[in-house]
Amino acid sequence: MEKLYDETKEFDAALSEAGKYVIFGASEKAGKYIETSAERKPDYIVDNGWQRLGEFCGLPVYSPEKLKELDERDVILVGSRSFLSIAHQIEKNGYKGKVYSLHLLCRQREYEKIINEDDCISEFYDQRTGADNLLMIVAGFQEYYWETVLERVREDQRLFTEALDVCVCVPKGNDRIDGLREICKKNKWSFLHITDNQLAKAQNIVLFLHDKAQWIYKIDEDIILPRDYFTRMKRGYAEAGPRLRHRVGFLAPVLNINFCGTEVFLKSLDLEEKCAAELGDFIYGSDGSFLSPAMGVWIWEKCTPFDMVAKEFERINEGKFACCTTRFSVGAFLMLREFWEDMGGFEVAPEGVLGREEEQMNERCINKVCVMAMDCSILAGHLGFGWQKDAVHQFYDDNREAFKISWEND
Where do the domains of the chain lie, and which CATH numbers do they carry? Predict the structure, then answer.
């Protein structure tokens, strides 16, 4: 039976044909890999640190100058978490061959077993086309929003001029997925249901299975998209770096309920003082009043009818970008595949623990001196954090018309 996922075969084939095999980085991870791997042992190790030159795990350690003797048939495996920066260094030294990430390779080995051998995948309805763009939707718990949220996804996919694969991923922990499965089949979207209640694992599986996708969009099932979201986000990603004079880790829209997005939302529409006067003063992202159900409803009152407000928001903030100043809650974003690969995939927390991949993305940007960027012209709606859910859900039920698509009137 053909494997559903077999990404490491490229590395295995390259290693079998390589003249020399080198690991870059005398790291703890590299040491464990050398000691436990059944594969061919490296010929030597190179490292940027002069204090590490000599010997490591019984192998000689040289400076990067040693790489000049390699040709494109040889293999370099980067044992450092700084994969992209090391890969760029190797390229500048003139090496033309393939460079692999040890952290990603180990994650790939892990997921080959999970996907092909373990009983982790309960169901995979496969509609992959190999598109360069992928939308990953994390869903399965808030079925009362699916009609609105997924209709907007479907209609904006039709407006997008590029091919876009869509995969809805559902972790264990619910019994409300029959309707979601039917929506996916109707729209020719992939559907993944796993047996573990681990969102990061579900997302890793989606990304490993859609290995051709380089542009990764992600939204949660409670995110309201504006018109031309996919087109504008991709264009914004290209523009954000030069305008901000920063390297971009990932790009987000302005989420109206979000630690960073709420500030941009209120200030853009000149609502900050009005909000404080009516609800009481607040500190962004850190106190009860900011995160209260009343705040969630108040923001949505100012954000509807949604398409009308989103269009005005685009007019006000055209060409404006911002760096997230605090932790970003990753309900909607666009990243390049290489950002996820450079992390070695998402870290999987124990079942039921939420937000580790969010922390990881935030930490990665800070540690790698790249920014969590926002395109201030793109307003997306978030239907509340957990403690706001009941109040915002009631507002949504009472104001369904305000959430309906009105693009045909633009």
Answer: 9-114 (3.40.50.20), 123-409 (3.90.550.10)
